[in-house]
C-alpha cells in the first residue's frame, strides 16, 4: 500500500515537472520570438554599416597631413561614436517601420508591426528613445561637436521617416543621414570637420549622393518593371567610384594603403554591380530587393576604400564590419 502511494506521488511529480518544463520551453520560445521580432525591426545586419561611416570620418582627419589638428585620435572616442551611430541607425529603422505600418500592412504584412509581434506605439517610443540615447552617448565620448552632429543625424532621420519619405527632398535627406554620420566620425578629434580641406569635405557629399540614389531605388522596390529606379542607383554607384578615385588622387596615399583602397574599390564594384545588373535585366521585387540590400551593405566597402587612404589599418577596420553584416543578412531582412 505504501509503495503504491509513493508511486502515485512520483507520477504526479513527473507530471508537474513536465508541465514546468513545457512552460519553460514556451517561455524560452516566446523570448526568442520577441528578440527576433525586435532584431527584424531594427534590421540587425544594417547596424554594422554604421560604424564604418564613423571610421571613415575619423580617417579623413588622420589623412589630412596639412592640418594643425593632433594626429592621435582617441580609440575610445571612435568606439563610442560608433556605438552612437549604431543607436541612431536602430532608432531610424524603428521609426521607419512605425511610420510605415499602414503601408506595410498591405505590402509587407510579415513585418514586425503589421504582423502584431510589436505594437506600433512601442516602436515609436523605442525609436525616439534610441535617438536620444545616441545623442547622449556622442556627447559623453566626444563633447558638444559630437552631440551636435548626432543631433543633426537624429533630426534628419525624423524628417525623412515622418515627413519627406518618397519625395526628392526625402531621398536627399536619407542620404544626409549617412553623410552626417561620416561627419560624426570627424568629431573624434574635436571640431575637426571645420578644419578639413575641401577634398575631405567632399567625401560626405559623395556618400549623400550614393545613398540618395539607393533610397530612390528602394522606394520603388515593390514596383514591377521600374528599370529607371535601378538605373538611378547604378549611376549613384558609378558616381561613388568616381568620387573615390578623385579623393585618392588628391590625397596620394602610400603605395600599400593605395593598394588596399583599390582592392576595396574593386570589391565594391563587384558587390553592387552583380545584383544591380540582375535587377536591371529583370526589374521585379525579387531582384530589386536584393540589389537594394547589396547597395546598403556595399557602403561598408566604399567606406573602407576611402578610409584606407589614411592607412591600411583604417581600411581593414572599416571593411571588417562586412563580415557580420553579410552573415546576419542571411537571417534578417536588410530592406
TrEMBL record:
<feature type="transmembrane region" description="Helical">
    <location>
        <begin position="254"/>
        <end position="272"/>
    </location>
</feature>
<keyword id="KW-1133">Transmembrane helix</keyword>
<dbReference type="GO" id="GO:0005886">
    <property type="term" value="C:plasma membrane"/>
</dbReference>
<feature type="transmembrane region" description="Helical">
    <location>
        <begin position="147"/>
        <end position="164"/>
    </location>
</feature>
<feature type="transmembrane region" description="Helical">
    <location>
        <begin position="230"/>
        <end position="248"/>
    </location>
</feature>
<feature type="transmembrane region" description="Helical">
    <location>
        <begin position="123"/>
        <end position="141"/>
    </location>
</feature>
<feature type="transmembrane region" description="Helical">
    <location>
        <begin position="308"/>
        <end position="328"/>
    </location>
</feature>
<feature type="transmembrane region" description="Helical">
    <location>
        <begin position="284"/>
        <end position="302"/>
    </location>
</feature>
<feature type="transmembrane region" description="Helical">
    <location>
        <begin position="199"/>
        <end position="218"/>
    </location>
</feature>
<dbReference type="InterPro" id="IPR000537">
    <property type="entry name" value="UbiA_prenyltransferase"/>
</dbReference>
<keyword id="KW-0812">Transmembrane</keyword>
<keyword id="KW-0472">Membrane</keyword>
<dbReference type="Pfam" id="PF01040">
    <property type="entry name" value="UbiA"/>
</dbReference>
<dbReference type="GO" id="GO:0016765">
    <property type="term" value="F:transferase activity, transferring alkyl or aryl (other than methyl) groups"/>
</dbReference>
<protein>
    <submittedName>
        <fullName>4-hydroxybenzoate polyprenyltransferase</fullName>
    </submittedName>
</protein>
<dbReference type="InterPro" id="IPR050475">
    <property type="entry name" value="Prenyltransferase_related"/>
</dbReference>
<dbReference type="InterPro" id="IPR044878">
    <property type="entry name" value="UbiA_sf"/>
</dbReference>
<keyword id="KW-0808">Transferase</keyword>
Amino acid at each position: 500500500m505504501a509503495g503504491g502511494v509513493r508511486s502515485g506521488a512520483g507520477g504526479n511529480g513527473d507530471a508537474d515537472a513536465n508541465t514546468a518544463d513545457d512552460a519553460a520551453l514556451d517561455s524560452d520560445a516566446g523570448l526568442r520570438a520577441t528578440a527576433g521580432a525586435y532584431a527584424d525591426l531594427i534590421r540587425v545586419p544594417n547596424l554594422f554599416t554604421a560604424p564604418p561611416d564613423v571610421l571613415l570620418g575619423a580617417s579623413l582627419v588622420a589623412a589630412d597631413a596639412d592640418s594643425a589638428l593632433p594626429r592621435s585620435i582617441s580609440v575610445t572616442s571612435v568606439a563610442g561614436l560608433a556605438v552612437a551611430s549604431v543607436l541612431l541607425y536602430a532608432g531610424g529603422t524603428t521609426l521607419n517601420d512605425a511610420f510605415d505600418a499602414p503601408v506595410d500592412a498591405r505590402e509587407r504584412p510579415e513585418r514586425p508591426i503589421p504582423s502584431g509581434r510589436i505594437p506600433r506605439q512601442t516602436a515609436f517610443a523605442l525609436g525616439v528613445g534610441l535617438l536620444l540615447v545616441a545623442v547622449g552617448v556622442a556627447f559623453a565620448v566626444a563633447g558638444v561637436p559630437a552631440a551636435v552632429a548626432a543631433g543633426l543625424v537624429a533630426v534628419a532621420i525624423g524628417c525623412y521617416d515622418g515627413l519627406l519619405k518618397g519625395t526628392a527632398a526625402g531621398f536627399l535627406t536619407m542620404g544626409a543621414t549617412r553623410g552626417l554620420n561620416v561627419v560624426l566620425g570627424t568629431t573624434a578629434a574635436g571640431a575637426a570637420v571645420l578644419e578639413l580641406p575641401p577634398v575631405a569635405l567632399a567625401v560626405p557629399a559623395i556618400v549623400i549622393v550614393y545613398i540618395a540614389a539607393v533610397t530612390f531605388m528602394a522606394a520603388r522596390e515593390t514596383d514591377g518593371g521600374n528599370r529607371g529606379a535601378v538605373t538611378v542607383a547604378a549611376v549613384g554607384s558609378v558616381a561613388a567610384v568616381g568620387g573615390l578615385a578623385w579623393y585618392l588622387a588628391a590625397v596620394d596615399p602610400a603605395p600599400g594603403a593605395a593598394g588596399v583602397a583599390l582592392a576595396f574599390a574593386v570589391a565594391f564594384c563587384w558587390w553592387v554591380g552583380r545584383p544591380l545588373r540582375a535587377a536591371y535585366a529583370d526589374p521585379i521585387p525579387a531582384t530589386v530587393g536584393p540589389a537594394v540590400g547589396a547597395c546598403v551593405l556595399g557602403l561598408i566597402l566604399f567606406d573602407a576604400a576611402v578610409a584606407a587612404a589614411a592607412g591600411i589599418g583604417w581600411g581593414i577596420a572599416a571593411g571588417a564590419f562586412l563580415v557580420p553584416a553579410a552573415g546576419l543578412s542571411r537571417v534578417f531582412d536588410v530592406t
